[in-house]
C-alpha cells in the first residue's frame, strides 16, 4: 500500500495531490491529454499529501485552519465529497483563529515570491496588564506548505510575554 501523492483512479485518470502557494490541492490528471482538472474542496492541509483512488472514488485525509483533520471520500461521478471520520468534534470559535494572508511579489528574472503573514486576531480588548490566551493550530503548514501535526495548543500569558505579543 504505502503512501503517495498520486493514485490511478482509472486507465485514463490519475488522482493527485500537490502544494500550490502553501496549500494542498487535489486534482485529476487525464493521462492521454495531460489536462489537470482541479477538485474544489475546503481542505488546504493534507499531511504528506497521501491519496488513494479506486472504484470511482478518491480517499484522503484533509484539514484546514478551521477544520479538523478528516478522512474524506470524494465521488468522481457526482463530484461530491463526504466526511467519513473527523479527528475530533471540538467546536472552536472562529474568533480565536487567525487567518493567513498571502500576496505575490514579482522578483527579477520573472520569478515570484509568495510571502505570507498570520495576523493575530482576538475578541478581547488588549491590555498591558493582562493578555488573553492564544490558540494556535500548527503553523508548520504555513511555513513549509506541509501540515506536520493536527494539534491545537493553548498558550498562556507567559508565552505572550516571552514573544512580546
Provide an overview of this structure:
This protein has 165 residues and is mainly beta. It has a domain at 6-86. Helices cover 7% and strands 42% of the residues. The chain is built from two helices and 14 strands; from the N terminus they run βββββββββββββαβα. Strand 5 and strand 6 form a beta hairpin. 16% of the residues are buried.
Helices and strands, with pairings:
Blueprint lengths: L5 E3 L4 E8 L2 E8 L5 E4 L11 E4 L2 E8 L2 E9 L4 E7 L13 E3 L2 E2 L5 E2 L2 E3 L15 E4 L2 H5 L7 E4 L1 H7 L2
Antiparallel strand pairs: 1-2, 2-3, 3-4, 5-6, 6-7, 7-8, 9-12, 10-11, 13-14
The major pleated sheet works out as: 4 strands, antiparallel
N-end to C-end Cα span: 45 Å
For the biggest β-sheet, the strand order reads: 1-2-3-4
**Structural class given helices, strands, pairing?**
mainly beta
Task: Catalogue the unreliable spans.
Answer: 138-165
Helix content: under 10%
Number of strands: 14
Return the string of H and E elements: EEEEEEEEEEEEEHEH
Q: Please, how many helices?
A: 2
Amino acid at each position: 500500500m504505502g503512501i503517495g501523492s498520486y493514485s490511478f483512479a482509472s486507465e485514463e485518470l490519475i488522482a493527485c495531490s500537490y502544494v500550490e502557494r502553501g496549500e494542498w490541492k487535489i486534482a485529476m490528471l487525464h493521462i492521454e491529454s495531460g489536462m489537470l482538472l482541479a477538485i474544489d474542496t475546503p481542505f488546504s492541509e493534507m499531511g504528506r499529501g497521501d491519496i488513494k483512488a479506486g472504484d470511482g472514488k478518491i480517499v484522503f485525509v484533509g484539514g484546514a485552519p478551521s477544520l479538523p483533520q478528516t478522512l474524506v471520500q470524494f465521488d468522481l461521478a457526482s463530484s461530491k465529497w463526504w466526511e467519513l471520520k473527523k479527528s475530533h468534534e471540538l467546536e472552536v470559535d472562529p474568533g480565536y483563529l487567525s487567518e493567513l494572508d498571502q500576496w505575490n511579489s514579482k522578483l527579477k528574472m520573472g520569478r515570484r515570491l509568495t510571502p505570507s503573514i498570520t495576523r493575530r486576531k482576538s475578541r478581547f480588548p488588549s491590555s498591558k496588564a493582562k493578555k488573553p490566551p492564544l490558540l494556535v493550530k500548527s503553523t508548520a503548514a504555513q511555513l513549509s506548505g506541509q501540515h506536520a501535526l493536527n494539534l491545537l495548543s493553548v498558550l498562556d500569558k507567559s508565552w505572550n510575554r516571552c514573544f512580546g505579543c
